[in-house]
Design a protein that fits this description.
This protein is of the alpha/beta class. The protein contains 8 helices and 9 strands. Strands 5-8-7-6-9 form a 5-stranded mixed beta barrel. Helix 1 crosses helix 3.
């Protein structure tokens, strides 16, 4: 991470804290269609457009409102991002992970990343099913780390946090999330490849944010080994069956509708997990 990126995240965090809480415990990034689930977390103490903070790009995708909420969830101070910047928007990698770095600079030790995803296992998955992310395949061709910054990714997504989520909802399945750059949906051939590679869900976000969260803001330690970072919980919501696995064509409106339909369950799950942190 460059010094400029780190300084920009700290400047955004300072502005955020001056207008909300003095620090935060957890950050939640809400994917496409997840806004109703965010509403279930409770009434925000403050809500403001991301563009009022340094370094944030304006929202460019339907279903991403481009606002930040400060919410007290069972005594935990939660920073809730209603939307994210995607790599396919063309701003580069740094804006994609700027929200995560801002959250880390604001004091969070836990990051919850949610997304809408295509289901690769229709034999066991239904539209509306949540999937705990156990691991990922980064097929975006990008990485938020540069230089000799060697980060252990053997446990990107916390086993402890996944266990907390399963306590809240024992029916939750786990799976591997594959991320492409987008904005095109995957071809049937790519879906067959992903199934062979062991992926269970596919989308266009999350992995770069997860890597940035694990890296932290501390910088590089001795011999280039990264230190610091937050625990990460990732949750995909299956909003459509992936290309070639059904007769349905893929549509963003379908993604948003599936998110709204699952909002109550997702909101309850997130609130329960946050209060147990």
């Amino acid at each position: 991470m460059s010094k400029e990126a780190s300084d920009l995240a700290r400047a955004a965090a300072d502005e955020l804290r001056s207008r909300t809480f003095d620090s935060f415990d957890v950050a939640l990034v809400m994917g496409s269609g997840w806004v109703p689930a965010a509403d279930a977390l409770g009434e925000p103490a403050v809500e403001l457009p991301v563009t009022e903070l340094p370094g944030f790009a304006p929202p460019a995708v339907e279903g991403h409102s481009g606002t930040i909420r400060a919410v007290d969830v069972g005594g935990k101070r939660a920073l809730v991002f209603l939307g994210r910047t995607h790599l396919y928007e063309g701003h580069g990698v740094e804006p994609v992970v700027h929200g995560i770095r801002t959250a880390l600079a604001a004091g969070v030790s836990t990051v919850v990343l949610t997304n809408a995803a295509g289901g690769l296992r229709p034999e066991t998955q239904r539209v509306g099913d949540p999937v705990l992310i156990s691991d990922h395949l980064n097929l975006t061709g990008a990485n938020p780390l540069t230089g000799a910054t060697f980060l252990d990714l053997s446990e990107v997504y916390s086993k402890r946090l996944r266990a907390l989520a399963r306590e809240a909802d024992p029916s939750l399945a786990e799976g591997v999330y594959a991320a492409f750059r987008g904005p095109t949906y995957e071809t049937p051939a790519e879906i067959r490849m992903l199934r062979t590679m062991g992926a269970d869900v596919v989308g266009m976000s999350t992995v770069l944010e997860a890597i940035a969260a694990r890296q932290g803001l501390v910088g590089a330690g001795r011999e280039g080994e990264a230190r610091g970072g937050a625990e990460v919980l990732g949750i995909s919501l299956v909003t459509n069956v992936a290309a070639g696995l059904s007769d349905q064509h893929l549509d963003h409106e379908e993604v948003l509708a599936a998110g709204k339909a699952a909002a109550a369950r997702m909101g309850k799950l997130l609130a329960t997990v946050v209060t147990k942190l």
